[in-house]
Design brief:
Layout lengths: L3 H38 L6 H5 L7 H43 L3 H11 L2 H24 L4 H22 L11 E4 L12 E4 L2
Antiparallel strand pairs: 1-2
Length: 201
């Protein structure tokens, strides 16, 4: 007879793989879009060439609005990223519990390698770098003609950098039973039967 826990573990691993693919695509396209957007926005920086040609400048409030929209995109991308990450973590926690009962170690090894290599730290660093790049771009766009817009852009970028870092540290909330998982090895029990109780931190 097939162990239903093994089937559940397979479904859990498949769910992790699906969300991991979605997270990979989100980062791939999101980071590419942000890089392209920042490159396009750098064209707005006033140069000696544009001044010599006598081109009319774009109003400061329009440039500032473009920077704010970019910062909002960074926050939205980070929230979606973290949302997928929480689904993956929830599935990984369940897979770990099942693996202990089934004497498997795949999820435990992956989790260990992930934390040893400090992957979450690098993820936060990428988002912080994007936010700070917008701040530097804001200074380049407005300094020295509009110091108010320049300072506001930089501080808004710092705020978004801090926000993306905080979002990266959000974690799963324990359920009403806390972090206790009751693993029942059968659907019916008689008096004196063993019941497995798994406690996770």
């Amino acid at each position: 007879m097939d162990d239903p826990r093994l089937k559940e573990w397979e479904v859990t691993r498949d769910t992790i793989a699906k969300f991991d693919d979605r997270l990979h695509d989100l980062r791939k396209y999101g980071f590419s879009f942000l890089t392209g957007l920042l490159t396009a926005e750098s064209i707005l920086i006033p140069t000696a060439v544009s001044a010599s040609l006598g081109e009319a400048g774009i109003p400061s409030w329009i440039k500032f609005s473009v920077l704010l929209v970019t910062l909002l995109l960074i926050v939205a991308l980070r929230l979606l990223d973290r949302n997928y990450g929480l689904f993956i973590k929830a599935c990984a926690q369940r897979a770990l519990i099942l693996e202990r009962a089934l004497n498997l170690e795949l999820t435990e090894i992956i989790t260990l390698r992930h934390s040893e290599r400090k992957i979450p730290l690098y993820e936060r660093a990428v988002y912080i770098s994007f936010a700070l790049a917008v701040g530097v771009l804001g200074v380049a766009l407005f300094w020295p003609d509009d110091p108010l817009f320049s300072a506001t852009s930089f501080f808004a970028a710092l705020l978004v950098a801090l926000l993306t870092s905080v979002i990266g540290q959000l974690d799963l909330r324990p359920g009403p039973r806390g972090e206790v998982d009751w693993t029942l090895s059968a659907t019916e029990f008689d008096q004196g039967d063993d019941v497995a109780i798994t406690l996770t931190k």
